[in-house]
Structure formats: C-alpha cells, structure tokens
Input
Amino acid sequence: MSAPLRRVFVSRDAYRSRRLKDAARLLPVLGAALFGLPLLWRGEETARVGTAGTLLFIFAVWAGLILGAFLIARRFARAEAGAEAAGPGRPGPAPGGD
Output
C-alpha cells in the first residue's frame, strides 16, 4: 500500500497574500483581453456602437483597471502593516513564499 497523503495547510494570512499576488498578476492579462475586445465587434448590430461607444468602453476598462490596481495595492499595504504589527508572537506571511 502507498503511504497516506499528507495534507498541507498554510496560514490564512499566507493564503490571502498568495491570492493577492495572483490577482495582481492577472490584472494586466485581464486588461489586455478587455482592450482587445472591441477588435472583435463587427457586424450590423455593433454598427450602432460606433467610435464614441468604443472609446467610452476603452475608457471604462482603463478606469476599472486603475481602480482594481488601487484596491489591490491598498490590501497589500494593509497586509504588510498587519504583519509588522503582529510582532514576534505571531508571524506574518513568509516573504517570498511563492
């Protein structure tokens, strides 16, 4: 028989830190996909959108990316401040623990 699988648990802070890093890495990919979306708009139904609608869409995506980056950066700062305030009794997320 094979040995039983060992479950690996990470602390909640380390898990959240990794997910924040994943979100920060995914943001440019999401932005590139959304900026490329107007290139796929063709046909009669999208003829009503026109240049103005496309530019409004691009501006909305741009503003959304800025807002998303701001929120992620704010959560990073909050996580770092929490790790510093944790002190020696409670370790924060491991640096570079990817």
Remarks:
- The two ends are 32 Å apart (CA to CA).
- The mean pLDDT is 81.
